[in-house]
Amino acid sequence: MKFFGLGSKDIGIDLGTANILVTLKGKGIVLNEPSVVAFDRRSQRILATGFEAKEMLGRTPEQIKAIRPMKDGVIADFTATQLLLKNIIYKICQRYNIGKPRVVVGVPSGITEVEERAVEEAIIQAGAREVYLMEEPMAAAIGAGLDIAEPSGSIIVDIGGGTTEVAVISLGGVVVSNSIRIAGDELDEDIVNYVKREMNLAIGDTTAEQIKKEIGCATPLVTELSMEISGRDLTTGLPETVKITSSQAQEAMQESVSKIVDIIRQTLERTPPELSSDIMEKGIVLAGGGALIKNIDKLVNERTEMPVYIADDPLTCVVKGTGKTLEDLERLKTVLINSRRRK
Prior knowledge:
alpha+beta; Nucleotidyltransferase, domain 5; 12 helices
């Protein structure tokens, strides 16, 4: 049975907590925007999505609501997610002249059946003809170029915005997996709290994210980096600019980064011995935005004593994986969650 016909009517979506990426069969990635939507509270009309809406976070008047509808990798606000997906699918269908598309979506591996149905429902209501879900670590493994079908073990660690997922994959299936709701967002929050506690300064999530990206590290850097940040002095209530260093950023994120490494170790401990020797040979592959934190590969290597590699363009692994699945569906249909459920 063929799920997808030919032609570029198929869309792959990485519905991430921090970013939403869309790939179109035959075109590659056609959209990569923050998962943020701004709408009018009264009319429920969308005012902006993506970058434009992200600029509004924490800056809107009473009647405008700018939110991130995904939390910890799952839908926290169903109406807003629906509006966001509807808007994105409509934009892409208009731009590329597509009728009712078929859609493959990457979802967290810890997703419940209720949450699965919520995602399906939102995408069908957004105008899709059929929806197929696949687990993010599986999509990330395919997108990172791992051969998931062979009978030897590979391990992928996808550090996203809302969740970190670790999966050992062999013969096209997940043998052992673990998911923890600690990832990029949690690291931003750690930085906000640290700056408040240690520097007596209130900063927003956007500033925290900037610190993480520019100077955040998992182990000390050879050359210490620093940057200037602005916020509100908690004593005077007035705007203030201070300097923060990479070792302070490391200290702020230390606890959460340790928990991420622990979950990798726990997954390795539960891996069957035959697959462990394969992994020892091939190493651990890191994907997702969190893979870009300086020295995180070094820390994972130190704690697991295994080779660690960062996937090429780790931010796009999941969406590339949904795209590759669309191209080779006959061979890969076992990786789709709901095609297994529908049989």
